[in-house]
Design goal:
The complex is a heterotrimer.
Chain A (H helix, E strand, L loop, with lengths): L2 H26 L7 H19 L3 H23 L4 H21 L1 H4 L14 H19 L2 H11 L1 H6 L4 H27 L9 H14 L4 H17 L7 H15 L12 H21 L1
Chain B lengths: L1 H29 L6 H19 L3 H29 L4 H23 L14 E4 L2 E4 H23 L1 H11 L1 H6 L4 H26 L10 H10 L5 H22 L4 H15 L14
Antiparallel strand pairs in B: 1-2
Helix pairs in contact in B: 1-5, 1-8, 1-9, 1-10, 2-3, 2-4, 2-8, 3-4, 3-8, 5-6, 5-8, 6-8, 9-10, 9-11, 10-11
Chain C lengths: L2 E12 L2 E12 L3 E5 L6 H8 L7 E6 L2 E2 L5 H7 L1 E3 L12 H8 L8 H5 L3 H20 L15 H14 L4 E5 L7 H17 L3 E5 L3 H7 L2 E6 L2 E6 L1 H6 L1 H8 L7
Parallel strand pairs in C: 3-8, 3-9, 6-7, 7-8
Antiparallel strand pairs in C: 1-2, 1-4, 4-5, 9-10
Classes of the chains: A mainly alpha, B mainly alpha, C alpha/beta.
């Protein structure tokens, strides 16, 4: 396999992990956050520092990045998850920006705005593939259990979720933390693949991009998120000329989808054997109707 | 030094206030934060810039075009995106996502068609400063403060003294009742978006004059958004107070601590206020009726 | 007879307005108690205060001998109080089965690791819960529509699903907020039988808000009449029907749909 193809697959894999985190948070719990790029930054910088300054093995750095992201999400969630949607959004945005500002400010440790260089390349195709499989399995198992059902209940009707005894604050926190762990995971893999990170890589636009991918894939669909990530990562690689228009295209797509077809590509549905069977049945029925008309 | 910084803070706070009132007006009516508001301001700044620098129109006409242009763009946002989502009875989160999409679209439209570089307005307003004792005030700052004061007074009159204001207040307290009372809601929503957009456009032009014009300049309106949250979402007066608090605080943190941590203080204070009073300083606690 | 719910001098003010004014009631186990009164009398506010959505200004709510006055909504539900909503609040994007499944979450007592690692405990509990839910849907006549989206059910079935969801919690007390809203005379007659059946089968105590007088009069052991947050009468259906105050304030005041 050429290095280029391998690189693209690694990039897709890292993006899938980050997007899955947002998918759980926004698609399944209906919490809109601009904080995920911040958690990616935390994962990236923590793991990079653990690897280079403390000579930790990669797996420890990786887990360390996820762990710190989880800790911070617990503290932040405690403060902000009780707030109403708009207030929550602005505080997560503030968190993202503060993370960036702090990284820039703590120059001696983080390299400031110039970036953090000299991270050894530890993220291999093999590690990314294992991570993706693990990330998807954990997300799927989580969502297909009472935990996932409770998140969906909060998304659909928070007051009713309360009324059937769901501790909504606790489950929102669960969703927020899982989402942060995924972001930290993706960030750590990212840092050890590119070997160089700067705070700007994890700015507001990155968070928007993650949310946009989830919306295009369809809110409430893991497979939708995975497909959308793959397509949207491949698109600028395959069509070089599109690359400059990428974000413009994202913006327009998300406005069109949310106004015209809010379910996105696969909203509230998962791609599965039975889904494909259903689709084929429908197509066949359509053809039969045509024949009868003819 | 202290008074000098205060003057600078009031000057920037005034521009935040122009944008923050727009957030507050729209929130009070539709119950969501129009995320794309800052980018409307950015587009206003660009319209003004193109008029002055490329078309070479006189400044007052350029500024007027920018105000109207931003107002129209703001209305289009509502007509083409938000209205449909409201009609679908979709969750508020969809409005926020649409606003984020619009914001990304506008920024990248400008990047693709006008380029990502920073631009400066030609010196339409003299960059001189007037000295009052030891304090210096730029002519531009005086101009911008005068404009802000006039605009805010007009808004205050509009909301408290006219039929339009009454209708808006009725609609923001209860949209269904208001529409039953025969208030044409859609008409007033359009008007509010026009007003908010024009204010944002004015803010954009003033920011452009003071600093530079660039595609991401709308992100400054985050400060305006925070100002409106600060004062309590939906409260116009709260938004104005919040804008001045933030403007002054920023100048002081930059001047006396370090400019690197300016935003950290702004967001820190925001979180602190929300923790103490979750609905902002002037916000009303609303209990969701089951 | 055992007391199951005891509300003492409950008051709830919004701003300066008294939505509930010194409301007291005692429910005996296994009975149906009706709350009636004109619109805005404070009936739904009482439900919302019992279930913890609103914090009472003063007063005590005791459930099975336990003070639940300042508990959070989910805690009240976990104590064993289920409810339905006047304006239906189903998890509308989810299937009928999932709606009930969610409400049964307390029976699924596995932990996060069991769920993620798919331990055998997870499988067992899920299977057991699923069977229970299907059983419940059969009893409520929703079995055939199990896989339909809750939001696309016809109105009457949505009301039934709300009840099914509340029952999946296995509550001891059920609060029904206008279960017969939008039903015609035959349908509401059916509903009365249905509720009686459920009451026996699930050993329920029921507190219900209802506008349909025929429903209230035929099903309730006792009735409380509210007006402007104040209790103007309490008694058996017969006593209420003949109560002069009630007639003046309520029955005589407007045409009652029955």
């Amino acid at each position: 396999m050429s290095g280029y193809v391998e690189g693209v697959i690694i990039l897709i894999g890292i993006n899938i992990i980050a997007v899955l985190g947002v998918s759980i948070l926004t698609g399944f719990t209906r919490l809109f956050s601009f904080g995920n790029a911040g958690f990616m930054a935390i994962g990236a910088y923590t793991s990079a520092i653990l690897t280079t300054k403390f000579n930790m093995p990669f797996i420890i750095s990786l887990l360390g990045g996820m762990f710190v992201a989880a800790l911070i999400s617990l503290a932040l969630g405690k403060l902000t998850l009780g707030l109403k949607g708009d207030y929550f959004l602005i505080t997560t945005l503030g968190f993202g920006e503060c993370t960036r500002v702090l990284i820039e400010f703590l120059d001696p440790i983080t390299g400031g705005a110039r970036g953090y260089a000299g991270i050894p390349q530890k993220t291999t195709l093999f590690i990314v593939l294992i991570s993706v499989v693990l990330a998807i399995t954990v997300a799927r198992n989580l969502l297909n259990s009472k935990y996932g059902r409770n998140l969906k209940a909060i998304r659909e009707q928070e007051i009713a979720a309360d009324a059937v005894g769901i501790d909504t604050a606790r489950f929102k926190q669960l969703s927020f933390t899982v989402s942060a762990v995924y972001a930290g995971w993706a960030g750590a893999l990212f840092a050890h693949y590119y070997m160089f990170i700067t705070p700007v890589m994890f700015n507001l636009d990155k968070s928007s991009e993650l949310t946009i991918t989830v919306v295009i894939g369809g809110l409430g669909s893991l497979t939708g998120s995975i497909i959308a990530t793959t397509v949207l990562t491949l698109l600028p690689e395959v069509l070089r000329s599109v690359a400059n228009y990428r974000m413009l295209f994202y913006g327009i797509a998300v406005v069109l989808i949310i106004t015209l077809r809010p379910n996105g590509l696969m909203g509230y549905k998962e791609l599965s054997a039975s889904w494909i069977k259903n689709l084929l049945l429908q197509i066949r029925r359509m053809f039969r109707c045509r024949k009868e008309v003819a | 030094m202290f008074i000098q910084q205060l003057v600078n803070g009031v000057s920037i706070g005034g521009i935040y206030a122009l944008m923050a009132t727009g957030y507050a007006l729209i929130y009070s009516l539709l119950g969501f934060s129009n995320w794309a508001h800052g980018d409307v301001a950015m587009l206003g700044a660009y319209i003004g810039f193109l008029c002055v620098a490329t078309v070479r129109m006189p400044f007052w006409l350029s500024a007027l075009t920018a105000l109207l242009g931003a107002g129209v763009i703001s209305i289009l946002n509502e007509r083409l995106a938000y209205r449909r989502i409201r009609r679908n009875n979709a969750p508020t989160m969809f409005l926020m996502i649409a606003a984020m999409g619009l914001s990304v679209t506008f920024q990248n439209m400008v990047i693709v068609f006008l380029g990502p570089k920073f631009r400066t307005y030609p010196p339409v307003i003299p960059v001189k400063a007037i000295s009052l004792g030891s304090i210096k005030i730029g002519v531009l700052d005086i101009f911008s403060m005068a404009f802000v004061i006039i605009a805010m007074s007009l808004l205050e009159l509009l909301i408290t003294k006219t039929k339009f204001g009454l209708a808006i207040r009725a609609a923001s307290s209860n949209m269904i009742t208001a529409s039953l009372m025969g208030i044409n809601i859609d008409f007033y929503i359009t008007l509010v978006f026009l007003l908010a957009g024009s204010f944002a456009g004015a803010g954009g032009v003033l920011l452009g004059l003071k600093y530079t014009v660039y595609p991401q300049m709308g992100n400054v309106s985050l400060k305006a958004f925070i100002a409106s949250v600060f004062g309590g979402l939906g409260s116009v007066r709260g938004a104005i107070v919040g804008a001045f608090i933030i403007g002054i605080m920023e100048v002081f943190v930059s001047g006396f601590i370090t400019s690197g941590l300016r935003d950290l203080f702004t967001f820190g204070l925001l979180i602190a206020i929300l923790l103490i009073k979750p609905s902002g300083l002037f916000g009303i606690d609303i209990q969701d009726k089951a | 007879m055992k007391e199951i719910l005891k509300i003492d001098n409950l008051t709830k003010k919004f701003g300066g307005v008294c939505a509930i004014d010194n409301f007291s009631v005692t429910l005996e186990e296994g009975t149906v108690h009706g709350l009636i009164g004109p619109n805005g009398a404070g009936k739904t506010t009482i439900f919302n205060t019992i279930t913890g959505i609103y914090k009472p200004t003063s007063g005590i709510i005791e459930f099975m001998g336990k003070d639940i006055t300042n508990k959070k909504p989910y805690q009240v539900a976990q104590e064993g109080i289920g409810r339905t909503f006047q304006n239906i609040r189903l998890f509308s994007q989810l299937s009928v089965l999932e709606n009930v499944f969610i409400a049964g979450h307390l029976d699924a007592d596995y932990d996060l690791f069991a769920a993620i690692l798919r331990l055998s405990k997870f499988g067992k509990k899920e299977k057991y819960l699923r069977e229970n839910c299907i059983e419940l849907l059969k009893i409520l006549g929703l079995y055939d529509r199990m896989n339909e989206k809750a939001g696309s059910l016809p109105y009457g079935h949505q009301r039934k699903l709300e009840i099914a969801r509340a029952l999946a919690l296995r509550p001891k007390l059920l609060l029904l907020d206008e279960p017969a809203a939008g039903m015609n005379r035959d349908e509401s007659k059916e509903l009365v039988e249905f509720i009686n059946e459920l009451k026996e089968k699930f050993k329920l105590t029921i507190l219900m808000v209802e506008h349909h007088m025929d429903v209230v009069m035929s099903i309730c052991r006792r009735i409380t009449v509210l007006n402007f947050g104040k209790t103007i009468a309490e008694g058996t259906p017969k006593e209420i029907q003949t109560n002069k105050l009630v007639r003046e304030a309520y029955l005589g005041g407007e045409d009652v749909a029955c």
